[in-house]
Amino acid sequence: MANPAPAATNGETQLVLRSVGKTYANGTVALQGMDLTIRHGDFLSLLGPSGCGKSTALRLIAGLSQPTSGLIDWRGPKMKKSDVGFIFQEPTLLPWASVFDNVWLPLRLQGISRSSASARIGAVLESVGLGAFHNSVPRELSGGMKMRVSIARGLVAKPRLLLMDEPFAALDEITRFQLNKDLLDLWQAEKFTVIFVTHSVFESVFLSNRIVVMAARPGRMFGEMAVDQPYPRDQSFRTSAHYGELARDTSAMLGEAMGNGGHDGRH
Amino acid sequence: MAGIDETALVPNPLPLDPEEQRRLRDARIERIGKWLLPFLIMVLAIFSWDRICVVNEIPKYILPRPGDVMRTLIADAPLLFGALLVTLKITFLSLALAVVGGVGLSVLFAQSKWVEMSFFPFAIILQVTPIVAIFPLINIYVDNQTAKLLLCAWIVAFFPILSNTTLGLNSVDRNLLDLFKLNGASHWQTLWLLRLPASMPYFLGGLKIAGGLALIGAVVAEFVAGSAGQSSGLASRIIEAGYRLNASRLFAALLLISFTGIIIFLVLSFVSDRILRGWHESALSKDR
Q1: Which among B175, B193, B197 has the least Cβ separation from residue A88?
Q2: What totals of helices (H) and strands (E) does chain B contain, helices first?
Q3: Do B279 and A95 touch (CB under 8 A)?
Q4: Closest Cα of chain B to A23: distance in Å?
Q5: What confidence tier does B133 reach under pLDDT thresholds 50, 70, 90?
Q6: Chain B contact for A37, CB < 8 A?
Q7: pLDDT single digits (tens) B39-92
Q8: In principle, which of A96, A214, B69, B204 could form an S-S bond with B251, CB 3.0–4.6 Å?
Q9: Is B159 within 8 Å of B102 (Cβ atoms)?
Q10: Which residue would you say has higher pLDDT here, A86 or B288?
């Protein structure tokens, strides 16, 4: 930690969760005793059924709610608000604002003017393939394009950690595959850390280097899988035998987590 | 093959099946009928009105014929339009104040749910008490004639704006609120960049209702004030014409008020459509 610059050196610890738990006032235990170490440059998926606390964990890490027990320990230089990007399941855009202004929002809230943010916004829109849509309003865009705007907005402030809460769950498969691929390219180019919540075994295997499988009632960590496939990954990985094995193993672990051995992973 | 080439030159070469043809025809008929039917019914009603007057030999001071009303409208135009102007002044001033007061109060309410819980009942009390019953009190406490009328019309008009805007400010997408929180937005940034724009459709809905209510409020206030002989608006002309059994002028004044109300509604609808165009469901064309 001698160098305070946000160098995404793979392997250095970025964040440690120590027996983090969240219990709501009505008695629901949303998350119990979660221990997790996240390293710089990880692409970590939280995989599990509904009610396993994966979204709760994400909200705790984002600081949107406070843990009831345990501790979230940030390592390295002090994190600013802009060091964490959050992408919701819905695109969550301002419907009255143009694509450009939507992506400007995080910078605008930091007090950066439209003109001085313009170069960065142009670059990030270009990187998600929306270079020609600066002046469109969300209504005019397809679901996949809206999600691209949302990703651009999440990345515009150059976060060191990107939290994604089932971002592609509502998209059709063709669009989802394309966005999976583009997200990996962005991740490799910009070297941020990703924590990706999903309920799809196949998506988690394709994207991540680590998969954390979670169980429900009470929400807790069940186990972890390493995905040893090197990056860049492309469509040929999806059809490889190795991918099939990994998906099967992950499905088996998820099946155990859900208390049935015969889970086939086809969510 | 020659036949196919010829059809390609025809402007509408699409061969439509009977079902699509019928659908197209129905759409065309509906488009015309939407305007034609109300118009026909209106003409029919006016015609029957005229016939009833003639056949039953109803005297002019009880039910004037439509033609008489139109003649009175033209002959009394200086008098009636002058009075309308006075009423319109009260209407628009009170509507402007209702916007300022309604939006201002709802922004205040949005600051804390405690403020809202504490003060909302007062707004409801003001709303549910008939303005006619409050006026005598206002008459005692307020000296200025215009201020009296304005206050009355304002009490009637501000509530829909207040309640709609409050609802809008509280109906912001939770995720967007989280997004602002995550990015460290200040209270005012959240209000200005998120809550206010998001409540715009609700506010405009309230404004459309308030526009009509401001006119009603102004006329009612003038009525109550006018019975004391203190007003020069349309309502006082109506009272005056009532005393003189000048039914034609009563109808003419009524006509003016109705038309004014319709125009206010149309103008506000147009404004609302312009502002929401492109992003809100309510302002999108149904073809899409």
Answers
A1: B175
A2: 12, 0
A3: yes
A4: 20
A5: confident
A6: no
A7: 999 999 999 999 999 999 999 888 999 999 999 999 999 989 999 999 999 999
A8: B69
A9: yes
A10: A86
Strand blocks (E) in B92-184: none
| Global ipTM | 0.87
Query: Per mean pLDDT, which range of A28-32, A174-178, A192-196, A257-261 is the poorest?
Result: A257-261
Quote the minimal CA–CA distance from A109 to chain B in Å.
Answer: 6
Give the H/E segment covering residue B173: none
Each residue's pLDDT tens digit, A214-236:
998 888 899 998 998 888 888 88
CB contact set of A225 (below 8 Å; sequence gap of 6+): A210, A211, A213, A246, A249, A250, A253
In angstroms, the first-to-last Cα distance of chain A is 41
For residues B232 and B220, is the Cβ–Cβ distance under 8 A? no
| DSSP secondary structure letter of residue A78 | P
List the one residue out of B181, B218, B60, B12 whose CA is nearest residue A88: B181
C-alpha B201: how far from its chain's center? 15
Local confidence band at A79 (pLDDT 50, 70, 90 cut-offs): confident
User: Is the CB of A112 inside 8 Å of chain B's CB atoms?
Assistant: no
Q: Can you give the three-state secondary structure of B249-283, one letter per residue?
A: HHHHHHHHHHHHHHHHHHHHHHHHHHHHCCCCHHH
Q: How far is A59 from A56, CA to CA, in rounded Å?
A: 5
Q: What does the pLDDT read at residue A3?
A: 34
Task: Record the tokens describing residue B269, joined without a space.
Answer: 């609808």
Residue-wise burial string across B134-154, b where 16 or more C-beta atoms lie within 10 A, e elsewhere: ebeebeeeeeeeeebbbbbbb
Q: Is the pTM of this model over 0.90?
A: no
Chain B residues in contact with A108 by the CB 8 A cut-off are 193
Q: Are strands A84-87 and A161-165 parallel, antiparallel or unpaired?
A: parallel
Name which of A82, A109, A138 is nearest B180 (Cβ-Cβ). Answer: A109
